[in-house]
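In this supplementary section we document a worked example of the pipeline. Step one takes a protein sequence of length 345 as its only input; no multiple sequence alignment statistics are reported here. Step two produces a three-dimensional model, which step three serialises into structure tokens for compact storage. The input and output of this example are shown verbatim.
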Amino acid sequence: MDAAGSERALQFGAGDAGPLSALLAATYPERTVALVLFNSAPRFVRSPNLPLLPTQAEQERQLEEILRRWGEPAFHEERMKRFNPSATAAERQSTGRLFRLSVSPGAAADYYRMFLDVDVREVLPSIHVPTLVVYRGDLALASIKSAGQYMAERIPGARLVELPGGDVGTGFGDTDQLFAELEAFLIEVVEEKRWQTEPDRLLATAELGDRAWRELLQNHHADIRRQLSRFRGKEMDTAGDGFFATFDGPARAIHCGLAVRESLAELGLEIRAGLHTGECELLDEKVGGIAVHIGARVASQARPGEVLVSSTVRDLVAGSGIEFKERGIVTLKGVPDQWRLYAVS
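The serialised model returned by step three reads:
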């Protein structure tokens, strides 16, 4: 968007692109005119509140079939008939050929494996841009209907629309009706100028450190600020030996924590870093709210030299190659419920 000179855009997430679009809209509400989620879900493996999704075992069998049969014309023909039943024979052949020529079996399996770990359920209440959730009612993937309803219930003010047909792809089925719904939604958004309202809440990842630097404080601060600049972190506050910063992505926050740990180790210093992602309140350019409090409590649980994260952060960086070691379930002082924490390994 920066390269194209686009200040605001409609985020349209279809299928497995939906979670990324939802996360972007929550993190950058000032860059988002509106959000449309089409035939999508916040996660793709069954959970207690999404019981119609495929189980982990069922998804693993799909993964094995992709590895075994990717590239076979018959395999792609079968999938097209199931997921896009209105496609013509020529469309099925050309789409199958596109898949075979553009993606290797290993790359397809890696991608499929990655999105099985994706989970943005906790992000949904933090989306404060006009949102349209659309699904087709006769999908072979019946779970998408329940997932669409789940998202619409949890995104504030979201509108839910069911279209006829059973095609997963945006380019198949009654596209005229899909575009009519999009047009009506965007006309309403533009006429009401809902996108011009400056957001006072956003999704951010907070990092806090805890170690006394004493006479090394100046070098310590300089090192941390250098890494914050490198990973696009924003310094919000300092208190003695502690830094509080926000990031526009949890993976960058993790990499920043690791880089700070490495650079300060050269000064003979160890850090404790805690990361949590959640909705923050913006008050006079300061960030507050329960998410900040949780981040601080996570940091207090960190051991020397440890970058500790909440399960929310771990879920959001699924597929990034970052590995974690489970630290167990803990109670965080002043925070309801129990929390599962992970150390970056």
